[in-house]
């Protein structure tokens, strides 16, 4: 008996050790190799800009000669830094070396997830509205819900793109090689791959400067963290031997200036008014009721005002307001019609006995509260595929800008349709329908996931044709996840995909003519 | 032949925000099956909460109402020897929210295998002191959805648990102190990214380990046990649910509960035992006894156990 106990104890001990060792969860992109640019896109300075009128709208002074004492001093700064690289510093260099655009995109998704929390109601049953001028008081600003997020990703990406095009313009103009080329006996390339890309101004600091400014506008409670990341990327870039202090300083200033242009636009793009007023909220109901239709109502208790109902008035980057209206589909089946009854019955069938596969796709695509939202999910899909493409930083910026401008316009078009038709959710029409994910607090027709996914899959399929079929299948699964999750009718999803595809086609028109092909 | 008391399940489900851990707790008492006795049972549990702790802040949620978890658990406990018992439990769990739109889930949760070994038993003073060690292994029986809290039926981790139990019985009075440390494996969720106190780009979630401790005391006779039960669950790490966020598998889930359990062998029906219990998660901020990231649940259990003797009827 004693033996049994001893062997049992040993067994338990071994098993415990075994599980102890499993506790090593790391991110998929934690240990990426350094960016290995296939084509440095030396002519990107001529690519079509989004907001800037010319790539040299903001002046960048000519660099000093590489023989000047100032330049030599910069080289010795790098040399000194490279002599004492700690393990943590090496890890930081490697982190940024995998791609600055990738890292800032990941950071941005983290911010969206952090702030994607709907405010709790007040004791009187009303809901507080986040205030950009007091971002750290509850409710925190912003509530980065899907339309807010789509716009935020878009502004960051579009500004990064214009800034990097300007950066490439000056790189070509001044053509000053990287420190590890100019002085390869003094400076080596640490944890990075050498390229023949000129280093003045530094693309790392251009993106750090422009991104930091944009993020501070969009997530004003995060200013300290964002500035710390900027400093971290810039120091890592200098330590890696890719840029001198002067390359960094010039780039950061350029980035911040480009951001100002986008910030000015953002302040006047109507997003600040998208919350609407109680009068706006009741008008939607009146319009539906006057037509004899059933208006949407919030399924939350207490009833929450609809999410950003005037977001359809936001000025997009790709589509003008007439085009937005032209993309409206036919009305949804009316509540009480045979078609609607059939649609409701189908939803009911899916939620009552969900298969594990359906639960999987519902959760996989849920992208609800506390997540980076559907636009963030498509950024994640894109970024993880872009990693394999060996893009230059400026091509990363261009492709993310195309994706995110598409997603923002998709949000505008989708919100236009949602509030034009103001159609109820399945659980409103049939309260016995219980859902497998949270019911979003806005009208059903058309499905936001479907428009986002239809638009993203279209532009991504253009950018990486080999993946086009995969993106189409993913978009279709994302759309259907809302049907089988019980929060949308089939019509919402199918029409949503088609609307999204139309938005994506407009983005392709831009992509075909931006000079990057 | 001396008839030895046999048993069973007490209860103690840790009814969190999730319906986690529907575990048999025969493992936490000091009662051993004698050799070749085989006890099989069925327990029904109903656990529900209206208020829950979001981090350390207590609230209710009108979009959930009362969240209830019910389960039926099969338990089988076999006496390999008078000192060594093997216990297996299999719960079927279903959840429900009384308000809002969220759909309940249902399914077989985690199978739990326990080896319970009484390694010390000695008369000390007027009573008997027993020391018992239990090693447990639990793992999901099915690939249930663990990322739809609070409606999920479980957390999805595979756990190894080491437990030590000290029991002292004098006459009909007894007290038992039992503590168990659980190593919990990473879990996989259906999403490819999630936010805790930072963003994670993976579908794997690191699960913090847990300590579960119980104090039982009361009277224990051949045919009747009546005991008060204090339970505490403490999670070593994990994060807090943010204001108005959804709960998550790797939250720091802590709670303390008080309850009472009864086990009773019915006269005239040999070897048939009834069990019942009620446990209430308590909130006494003055004593700093509060829950964290869990529901303040009330749990009721009722069960039926039948003991078979596998010994040949001769002897």
Top CATH class of the largest domain in chain A: Mainly Alpha
How do the SSEs of chain A run, as a string of H and E? HHHHHHHHHHHHHHHHHHH
Largest sheet strand order of chain B:
1-4-5-7-8-9-10-15-16-17-18-19
Low-confidence stretches of chain B: 1-25
Count the beta strands of chain B. Answer: 19
Highest CATH level, the class of chain B: Mainly Beta
The helix-and-strand class of chain B reads mainly beta
Structural features:
heterodimer, A: 517 residues, mainly alpha, Vanadium-containing Chloroperoxidase, domain 2, 19 helices, 58% helix, 0% strand, B: 315 residues, mainly beta, Porin, 19 strands, globular
Kindly describe this structure.
- The complex is a heterodimer of chains A (517) and B (315).
- Chain A is an all-alpha fold.
- Chain A folds into two domains: 44-56 and 64-267, Vanadium-containing Chloroperoxidase, domain 2 (Orthogonal Bundle); 276-512, Vanadium-containing Chloroperoxidase, domain 2 (Orthogonal Bundle).
- Chain A has helices at residues 2-22, 69-83, 87-97, 100-115, 146-174, 179-182, 203-218, 223-239, 245-267, 278-290, 321-326, 338-352, 356-364, 373-386, 393-421, 426-429, 448-463, 468-484, 490-512.
- Mean pLDDT of chain A is 95; it is low at 18-22.
- In chain A, 58% of the residues lie in helices and 0% in strands.
- Chain A is elongated and about 80 Å long.
- Chain A starts with a helix and ends in a 5-residue tail after the last helix.
- In chain A, helix 5 (146-174) crosses helix 9 (245-267).
- Chain B is mostly beta strands.
- Chain B has a single domain (26-309), classed as monomeric porin ompg (Porin), CATH 2.40.160.
- Chain B has no helices and 19 strands.
- Chain B has strands spanning 37-49, 51-54, 57-60, 67-79, 84-97, 106-108, 110-124, 127-140, 159-170, 173-184, 187-188, 194-195, 199-200, 204-205, 209-220, 224-236, 255-265, 272-281, 298-309.
- A twelve-stranded antiparallel barrel of chain B has the order 1-4-5-7-8-9-10-15-16-17-18-19. Chain B has a two-stranded antiparallel sheet with strand order 2-3.
- The termini of chain B are close together.
- Mean pLDDT of chain B is 90; it is low at 1-25.
- The interface between A and B is large, with 57 and 50 residues.
């Amino acid at each position: 008996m004693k033996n049994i106990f001893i062997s049992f104890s040993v067994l338990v001990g071994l098993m415990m050790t075994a599980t102890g060792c499993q506790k090593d969860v790391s991110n998929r992109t934690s240990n990426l190799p350094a960016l290995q640019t296939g084509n440095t896109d030396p002519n990107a300075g001529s690519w079509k800009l989004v907001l800037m009128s010319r790539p040299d709208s903001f002046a960048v002074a000519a660099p000093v000669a590489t023989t000047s004492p100032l330049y030599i001093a910069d080289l010795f700064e790098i040399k000194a830094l490279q002599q004492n690289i700690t393990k943590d510093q090496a890890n930081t260099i490697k982190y940024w070396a995998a791609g600055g655009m990738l890292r800032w995109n990941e950071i941005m998704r983290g911010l969206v997830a952090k702030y994607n929390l709907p405010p709790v109601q007040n004791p009187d049953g009303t809901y507080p509205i986040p205030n950009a001028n007091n971002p750290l008081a509850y409710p925190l600003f912003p509530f980065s819900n899907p339309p807010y997020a789509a716009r935020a990703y878009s502004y960051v990406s579009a500004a990064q793109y214009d800034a990097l095009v300007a950066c490439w313009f000056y790189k070509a103009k001044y053509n000053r090689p990287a420190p590890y080329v100019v002085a390869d006996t003094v400076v080596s390339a640490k944890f990075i791959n050498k390229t023949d890309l000129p280093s003045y101004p530094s693309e790392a600091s251009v993106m750090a400067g422009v991104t930091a400014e944009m993020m501070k506008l969009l997530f004003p409670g995060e200013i300290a963290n964002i500035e710390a990341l900027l400093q971290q990327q810039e120091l890592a870039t200098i330590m890696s031997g890719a840029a001198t202090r002067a390359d960094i300083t010039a780039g950061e200033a350029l980035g911040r200036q480009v951001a100002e242009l986008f910030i000015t636009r953002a302040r006047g793009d109507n997003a600040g008014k998208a919350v609407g007023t109680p009068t706006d909220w009741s008008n939607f109901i009146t319009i539906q009721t006057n037509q004899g239709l059933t208006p949407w109502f919030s399924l939350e208790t207490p009833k929450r005002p609809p999410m950003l109902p005037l977001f359809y008035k936001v000025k997009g980057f790709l589509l003008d307001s007439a085009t937005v209206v032209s993309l409206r589909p036919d009305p949804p089946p009316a509540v009480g019609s045979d078609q609607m009854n059939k649609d409701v019955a189908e939803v009911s069938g899916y939620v009552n006995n969900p298969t594990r596969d359906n639960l999987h796709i519902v959760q996989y695509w849920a992208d609800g509260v506390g997540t980076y939202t559907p636009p963030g999910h498509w950024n994640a899909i894109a970024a993880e595929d872009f990693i394999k493409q060996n893009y230059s930083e400026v091509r990363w910026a261009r492709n993310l800008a195309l994706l995110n401008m598409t997603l923002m316009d998709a949000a505008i078009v989708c919100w236009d349709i949602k509030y034009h038709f103001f159609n109820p959710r399945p659980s409103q029409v049939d309260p016995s329908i219980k859902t497998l994910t949270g019911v979003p607090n806005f009208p059903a027709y058309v499905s936001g996931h479907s428009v986002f996914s239809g638009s993203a899959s279209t532009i991504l399929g253009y950018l990486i044709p080999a993946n086009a079929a995969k993106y189409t299948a993913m978009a279709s699964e994302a759309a259907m996840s809302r049907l089988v999750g019980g929060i949308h009718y089939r019509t919402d999803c199918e029409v949503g995909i088609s609307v999204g595809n139309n938005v994506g086609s407009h983005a392709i028109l831009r992509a075909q003519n931006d000079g990057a092909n | 032949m001396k008839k030895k008391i046999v048993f069973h399940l007490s209860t103690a489900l840790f009814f969190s925000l999730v319906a986690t851990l529907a575990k048999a707790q025969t493992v936490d008492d000091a009662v051993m099956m004698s050799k070749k006795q085989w006890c099989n049972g069925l327990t029904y549990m109903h656990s529900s909460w209206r208020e829950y702790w979001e981090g350390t802040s207590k609230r209710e949620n009108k979009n959930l109402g009362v969240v209830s978890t019910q389960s039926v658990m099969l338990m089988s406990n076999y006496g390999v020897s008078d000192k060594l018992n093997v216990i297996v439990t299999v719960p079927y769990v279903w959840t429900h929210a009384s308000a809002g739109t969220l759909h309940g889930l249902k399914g077989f949760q985690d199978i739990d295998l326990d080896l319970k070994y009484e390694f010390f038993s000695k008369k000390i003073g007027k009573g008997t002191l027993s020391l018992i060690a239990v090693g447990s292994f639990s793992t999901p029986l099915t690939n249930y959805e663990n990322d739809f809290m609070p409606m999920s039926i479980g957390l999805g981790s595979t756990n190894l648990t080491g437990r030590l139990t000290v029991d002292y019985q004098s006459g009909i009075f007894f007290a038992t102190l039992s503590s168990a440390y659980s190593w919990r494996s990473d879990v996989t969720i259906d999403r490819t990214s999630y936010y805790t106190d930072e963003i994670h780009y993976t579908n794997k979630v690191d699960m913090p380990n847990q300590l579960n401790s119980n104090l039982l005391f009361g009277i224990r006779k051949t045919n009747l046990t009546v005991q008060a039960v204090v339970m505490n669950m403490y999670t070593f790490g994990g994060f807090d649910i943010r204001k108005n966020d959804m709960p998550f598998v790797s939250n720091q889930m802590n709670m303390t509960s008080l309850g009472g359990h009864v086990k009773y062998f019915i006269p005239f029906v040999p070897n048939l035992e009834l069990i019942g219990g009620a446990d209430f998660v308590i909130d006494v901020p003055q004593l700093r006894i509060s829950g964290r990231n869990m529901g303040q649940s009330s749990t009721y259990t009722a069960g039926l156990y039948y003991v078979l003797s596998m010994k040949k009827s001769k002897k």
